Amino acid sequence: MKLDIILAGVGGQGIISIASVIGSAALKNNLFLKQSEVHGMSQRGGDVQSHLRISNQLIYSDLIPQGAADLILSIEPMESLRYLPYLSQTGWLVTNTEPYKNIQNYPEMEAILKEIESQPRHLSLNADEMAKSINALKSMNIVMLGAASLYIPISYESLEDGIRDIFGKKGSDIVNMNLQAMKLGRDFAEKSKK
Amino acid sequence: MQQLLLLGDEAIAQGAIDAGLSGIYAYPGTPSTEIMEYVQHNEVALSRKIHSKWSANEKTAMESAIGMSYAGKRAIVCMKHVGLNVAADGFVNAAVTGANGGLIVVAADDPSMHSSQNEQDSRFYGKFAMIPIFEPANQQEAYEMTYNGFKFSEKYGFPILLRLTTRLAHSRAGVGQRTLQNENTLALPQDKRQFVLLPSIARKRFKTLLETQAKFEEESENSPYNEYFDAKDKSLGIIACGIAYNYLMENFPNGCPYPVLKIGQHPLPRKKIERLANECKEILVLEDGFPFVEEQLKGFFEKFKIKGRLDGTLSRDGELNPNKVAVALGFVQVLGKPIPEVVQGRPPMFCAGCGHIDVYNALKETLKEYGDGHVFSDIGCYTLGALPPFEVVNSCVDMGASITMAKGAADAGLHPAVAVIGDSTFIHSGITGLLDTVIEKTSITVIISDNSTTGMTGGQDSHAVGRLVDICKGLGVEPEHIRTIVPLKKNHEEMVRIMKEEFEYKGVSVIIPQRECIQTAGRKAREKSKKD
User: Fold this and answer.
1) Which residues of A are less than 8 Å from B323 in CB distance?
2) Does residue B226 contact residue B263 with C-beta atoms inside 8 Å?
3) B305 Cβ contact list (under 8 Å, min separation 6)
4) Which domains does chain B show, CATH number per domain?
5) Are A48 and A15 in contact (CB under 8 A)?
6) Which structural domains are found in chain A, ordered by start?
7) Distance (Å, rounded) from C-alpha B59 to C-alpha B70?
8) What is the mean pLDDT of residues B408-430?
9) Does residue B504 or residue B349 have the better pLDDT?
10) Closest Cα to residue A74, out of A66, A83, A65?
11) Does the distance separating the beta carbons of B171 and A23 come in below 8 Å?
12) Mean pLDDT of the residues in chain A
């Protein structure tokens, strides 16, 4: 088993939390893991990415080679497209459709959505709205994790344990909110598959 | 072994704690910051009261670590690559004094300049100082090299340099832990003059350093970090340093067909390299950073064909990755699709509500009548004033350079000459420059945009909090030309008025717009509401 994920978004949107949950689940399943993060200047509202690699065999590179990612998981639509050079020919693009507009020349949404929809394997959803529907806007990133979980070969229960592990310090309310958020995303993905 | 999920930086911190560390010294700088932060929050470190406070800059950090080593305890000092420039005086001389308690210097390099002004390779500093350099390939090695590094340092009585790059510093993987060791007890150096670098003593100490070189080389020959992997196809021999080894192996999931010498410890193991050179037709050198090993090899074997960053096999600049290494190996790659044209760049920017925004709005308006080119800035979030929509900043060179460059430009006749520096950077390297201007009564205006933290690296404590006015007064800036204001939209007109007045003053003036970083203020508010 090998899974290479590019996590994408804008600094401050919470891609590291997603990586932490998957990472915690992977370690519990005795899998090898490497997860590179972006710290420093780019965190200030710039584009950020994290390379997350999981395998049952030793992983060498901290970086995913271009053309090799199994999954792009993006919590911002334009950012999902920035990493297409990394996506393998059989890889999935899973993205939030709610734009984060902190630049003046943000492109027309139609053009972005058209690009996303032209990808052979894609799943797009408005995770912001879904998170809002359960009064948990901050858990938008976890909704996205739930949607992508369909393409992550780690059991859903392990990911739930990952949520308990990563958010446990913040109290049971936060844990439950995130469990609910993940479920929303997961259900959406399962429905879309049918 | 217990598996901890750690960043490369954190693996170094955990290795140091487990090895009986007594003190860590550092100034924040990407990608090294998390080493100190990990120690600050580690329970063993807290219960042992291991020193883990930030220093004013890398030089004071380095010297404090040398002092702790003098007293016989184990110390680590951490910085980003350009921080080693600041600490270089102490660093190079620490190789001459040698160490008493184990002393590890960590330099985190930033090839591709993800968050830096240059991509210098700290291994050159290690070679320059003539001390052993360790270059981890992964998080586990980062842990081991630190854990065993103190013993190594104490065995020979010299500091060692641990060099890593951004990719390892900020990548997580499972790390196995070793037994926790006791701290050293206080023990002064046997030779009480060891650290007195008067010429007569320094000459002897330097000879000792020179004499120890052979032992360092022998250690490298036998080091588990310098492993020789033999293979059948001798048309090529590969030297892979640190994490470059990972990119190599990524390209050969079923094992590399060529002999590989993995390098993790310097000075170079000459015998192993000679074996590779004698057995293989060509050598390819893979190293993240400068062609440090490649250049040394050219000295070893003049007529030998060596491929690497110098002959164009790999690009001279930028971080390595699996794809670049694949090209160097002559592989045909299947890449993904290109980035669609619709995708726009998204540069970093000020957080909404940041005080620097108000400062730059006022500065931009004030400068209208003087024209462009008057503002020297520094290293921090406020460097973003160089980008749209402000584009008001004309320099960013090194820590503290805003004040001294403004001085030089004022000396040349530029008026007004304005420096914009943050509170933490002012403490780091701005104070001495400001004193130069006070002594000469240079006509400059220094704006210390005070957000009461070290913002860019994530909000570490700043020594400046509550002290800026007193420091400026103490340096001799006239009290009536030290102006404080809260940078808010409602104070815009007043800020413009103050700036105008001080630009016209023929002497040194300091304007301190003070408002806490909204990130740290928000964090504190959240912590407080959690307690309540």
Assistant:
1) 65-66
2) yes
3) B281, B282, B283
4) 3-222 (3.40.50.970), 228-328 (3.40.50.920), 355-521 (3.40.50.970)
5) yes
6) 2-99+108-193 (3.40.920.10)
7) 16
8) 97
9) B504
10) A83
11) no
12) 94
